[in-house]
Amino acid sequence: MARSKWKFSFFKKRILHYNFITLSSKIPQRFLIYERSSTIPYLLNNQVVYINKGLGWTKLLINNFHVSHKFGEFSLTKKPFYFPIREKTAVKLIKR
Question: CATH number, domain at 67?
Answer without folding.
Answer: 3.30.860.10
